[in-house]
Write a structure and sequence with these properties.
The chain contains 9 helices and 6 strands, in the order βββαααααβββαααα. It is α+β, with helices and mostly antiparallel strands.
């Protein structure tokens, strides 16, 4: 089993402290955006679109993550004080983040007047390692505690060994990173992005049965209901991309080109 440890942190001054979670999340965002932008460039797309989208996705994702967490997981606190909804710096739901990022994507697509599906696979290639670092941060913070278990990857919490879902999702995301790398040259725009969404959602549905303390509705967490929606979205993206490839192979296939030389 894995020994319990306290999240590493560095106190700067006053109320300002750098925590391991924040460092891991920042690394994930920067690395994921860089990978996605380079992939877009290699496909002959505009990397600035990906860089700009990264800002939209992060902002809308964090807002969505807090809103869903407050409304569906912290309902009692919200009913007592609706202003909890404005405290966007605390309390996050991963599927709320996905929903927020999706809404941000729709708005971004309209504002920039682009076909986002052209960029979806590039974003997916960066999203997998970004999520891995984010979940490493969650593991360091131990903010996704699971049930007691003698599983060999369980963490020896002070009250006994438990599942740590941050660790499990970091491992899952590492596997998804390998999957995205293996699919990076697959034909059909949107196939690998759809595979990422569907695969993560499928595994996440079962992971949530290991969690404790989450609000449930008819025995399932809000995130588990979200997995149904996102699994359907991922499958739809794959089917749509394959149909597009069949009907118009020249316009639907990946347009891989060499990236311009630096300097």
């Amino acid at each position: 089993m894995i020994p319990y440890f306290v999240q590493p942190s560095l106190h700067l001054f006053g109320p300002f402290t750098i925590h391991g979670w924040g460092v891991a999340v920042c690394i994930g965002i920067l690395l994921g955006t860089y990978i996605a932008a380079k992939r877009a460039e290699n496909l002959g797309l505009d990397p600035d679109v990906v860089n700009d989208y990264g800002v939209w996705a992060v902002v809308s994702g964090f807002i969505g993550a807090h809103v869903i967490e407050t409304l569906f997981y912290e309902t009692d606190a919200f009913l007592k004080n609706p202003l909890e909804l404005l405290k966007v710096w605390q309390g996050f739901s991963s599927y709320g983040g996905f929903l927020g990022a999706f809404i941000g994507t729709v708005i971004f697509r309209k504002v920039r007047n682009i076909r986002f599906l052209d960029y979806a696979d590039s974003v997916a290639l960066g999203m997998a390692p970004a999520w891995m670092f984010g979940r490493i941060g969650c593991f360091m913070a131990h903010d996704h505690i699971g049930k007691h278990s003698d599983f060999f990857l369980a963490v020896k919490f002070p009250d006994g060994p438990r599942h740590d879902l941050g660790l499990y999702e970091a491992i899952l995301s590492a596997g998804l990173t390998v999957l995205m790398m293996s699919l990076r040259n697959v034909k059909g725009r949107g196939v690998s992005a759809g595979a990422l969404i569907a695969a993560y959602s499928f595994v996440r549905f079962f992971f949530d049965f290991l969690r404790i303390g989450d609000t449930t509705y008819a025995g399932l967490t809000p995130a588990q209901y979200g997995t149904f929606v996102f699994m359907a979205l991922g499958i739809w993206m794959i089917v749509r991309a394959r149909r597009e490839l069949r009907d118009d192979p020249e316009n639907a296939k990946l347009r891989t080109v060499e990236a311009p030389a630096a300097g």
